[in-house]
Amino acid sequence: MTKNPPCIRHLLAGAAMIGALGAIRVPAAAADALTTGAPPGLNLSAPGIAWAGFVQPRQPNYEIARTFNDYSNPPSGIGPVSDDPAHPFANNEVAREMRVPSTYRVADLNNAAGRNLMPWVREALMKQNALALQGRNGEPREPRCWETGVPTFHLNPGQMHVIQTPKQVVLFLTGRIRHIWLNVPHSANPKPSWYGESVGHYEGDTLVVDTIGFNDKTFVDSYRTPHTDKLHVVERFRLIDGGNTLEVAFTVEDPGAFYQPWSGTRNRHRVVNANNKPGEFDCPESNGDYYNIGLEPIPTAQKIDF
Amino acid sequence: MKVCVCGVGLSLMLAGAAVSAACAAQEIAGTYWAMSYSPKIQVLGGGEPPLNAAGKVAYEANQKGLKDGSVVDKARHVCLPDGVPRVLETPYPFEIFQVPVDHVTFVYEMNHQTRVIFMDKPLPTLDSVVGDPRYNGHSVGHWEGDTLVVESTGFAFNTFLDASGLPHGDEMTTVERIRKVGNQLEDVITIHDLEMYARDWQARFVYDERDDVRVEDYACNDTHRDLSGVKGVQGH
C-alpha cells in the first residue's frame, strides 16, 4: 500500500526549495489561498478551526451568558426583537451561571424593535408571548429540528465549520448547511427555500453575503418573529480581535413584515482542535413532547419521495 | 520543477518553476448525481448479500417491521442520516470538497448529511469511538494513485444498509475505493461485518459529474427536487 502525502505539502516543499534558491517564496497563507480563494485576512477554514457561538467564561458573567443564543444590538439603528423588561429572559446559560430559573422568551412589543413590527407580526408575537407565559411552546424552533433560516442560523451557540473555495463558501452548524455562491448574480427567480439563495463576494477581508428567495416557514429570531418571502438579509463576515473572533453583522429587511430594516450582530470565537469536524444532524433522534408542554412536532415526512 | 496543488486546476509559473496540476487525477472535488436508484443494494458481481444466520434473522425482522409499522425507517420519516452504504445510494446530488487540506468532505443534499474523511490519519479503534457512534461512521482516507481509499468504523447501530432493511452489526467496518473515471465518480465499497454476513462483500456506485447542479436545501416535510431523471425512483 503506497500512501501519497497530501499534495499541498509538495507545494510548500517546492516553495521552500524555490526560496532556498533565492527565488520567490510562497508563504503558507498564499498556499491556502490557492485552494480556498479566501483573502488572507478571512481564512475561516484552516484545518482544525471552528467558530463557537459561545465560550464559557471562567467566572459567571451575566453579560456574556446573555449572548449564549442571542443577537447583539447594532451600534446604531433599530435592533432585533428583545425580551420584555417585565419578563426578563434567562437562557439556560444565564440560569446555570447566575443560579436563577430559566424562562421562556417574552418579546418586548413596545420598544423600537417592537414598534417596527407590522400588525400581523405583532399579533403573532402577542400570541406566542401568551403561550410562553403559560409555559407552553416556549422553545425556539431549532431544537424542534426545523431548519432555522437566516439570520437565525447564527444563533446556535455551537461550533460553526466553514469550507471556502473560489466558487463557494459553505457553513456547517449543528448538522445544518448553508451554501453561499461567490461572484455570481442572483437567479432571476430563485426557488423559495429555507436558507434562501445566498450570493457573496469579498470586499477586502470582509465576506459580504446577500440572500433572497426564502420560503416563509422560518422565524428571524428565537422569539418566533415571522417574515414573508420578501425577506432580504445582508451579512458581513469579518475577523476582529486579532483574528480570534468572527463577527457577523447583518441587516434584515422585509417590506411585508417590518416597517424599517433592522440590524444585529453575532460573534463567534475561534476554537482549535485537530479533530474538529461538522457534526451530523441527529436532532430527530429523540424529540418527542415528553412532558406535554405544547412543543410543536418535529418535521416528519408525510410521504417518501422515492 | 513540478509541484502539485490538490483540489484546484491551476497552472502557474513561479520563478521558472512550473506549478501545475500534476496530481489532477486526485481531484475529485465537484458535484455529482446518481442516474439510477435501487431500494435494494446491488451486490457487485451479482447475487444476494451473503447474510449469515444472525443476519437472516435480523433482515427478516426488519422487513416484517417495516411492513407492519413496528419498525420505523427514521432516515426517511424524520430524516436522520442514512448511514453507510445507504447514503451512497442517494438519488439526490451531493458535493465533494477537498479543502481544508486535511479533509475530504462529502455534502449530501438529502437529509443535509455530511461525511468528513480525515486524510492520512489512522483509523480510530472501535473502542475509542464506541461511545461516539456516527450514522455515517468515523472515516479516514489516503490516496493510492488516483484512488481515494476511505476506511470507516464506529457506525450507529440504528441504520439499515439499504431501503429494504438490510442489517449491520455494531462492529461493521467499510473500505471504499473512490476515483474519477472520465466524467463519472466510482465508489466501490467493501462491507466487513461478520456479525451479520458470512464473508466480506462489495457494492459499486457510479455518479455523473454535474457541475451544472447546485446542492439545495432539504427539509423532511418539504417538496424536494424533481427526481424523474433518476432511473428506478418510484413513480418515475
In short, what is this structure?
Chain A is α+β, with helices and mostly antiparallel strands. Chain A is 17% helix and 22% strand.
Describe the protein.
The complex is a heterodimer of chains A (306) and B (236). Chain A is of the alpha+beta class. Chain A folds into 2 domains: 7-36, no CATH class; 50-136 and 147-272, no CATH class. Chain A is built from 6 helices and 9 strands; from the N terminus they run H-H-E-H-H-H-H-E-E-E-E-E-E-E-E. Chain A has helices spanning 7-20, 28-36, 62-65, 92-98, 112-115, 119-133; strands at 49-52, 159-164, 168-173, 176-182, 197-203, 206-212, 232-240, 245-253, 262-272. Chain A has a 9-stranded mixed β-barrel. Chain B is mostly beta strands. Chain B has one domain (26-209): Lipocalin (Beta Barrel), CATH 2.40.128.20. In chain B, the strands form 2 sheets. A 9-stranded mixed β-barrel of chain B has the order 3-4-5-6-7-8-9-10-11. In chain B, strand 7 (138-144) and strand 8 form a beta hairpin. The longest helix of chain B has 16 residues, at 53-68. Chains A and B meet through helix 1, helix 2 and strand 4 of A and helix 2, strand 5, strand 6 and strand 7 of B.
Annotation keywords:
heterodimer, A: 306 residues, alpha+beta, 9-stranded mixed beta barrel, globular, disordered N terminus, B: 236 residues
Count of beta strands of chain A: 9
- State the end-to-end distance of chain B: 53 Å
Approximate shape of chain A: globular
| CATH class descriptor of chain B | Mainly Beta
Write out the strand line-up for the largest beta sheet of chain A, numbering strands in chain order: 1-2-3-4-5-6-7-8-9
The average pLDDT value of chain A, as a whole number, equals 87
Largest sheet geometry of chain A: 9 strands, mixed, barrel
Q: Which runs of chain B of at least 5 residues are low in confidence (pLDDT < 50)?
A: 1-25
The CA-CA distance between the termini of chain A, in Å, is: 40 Å
What amount of the residues of chain B lies in strands?
A: 25-35%
Q: Compute the average pLDDT of chain B.
A: 89
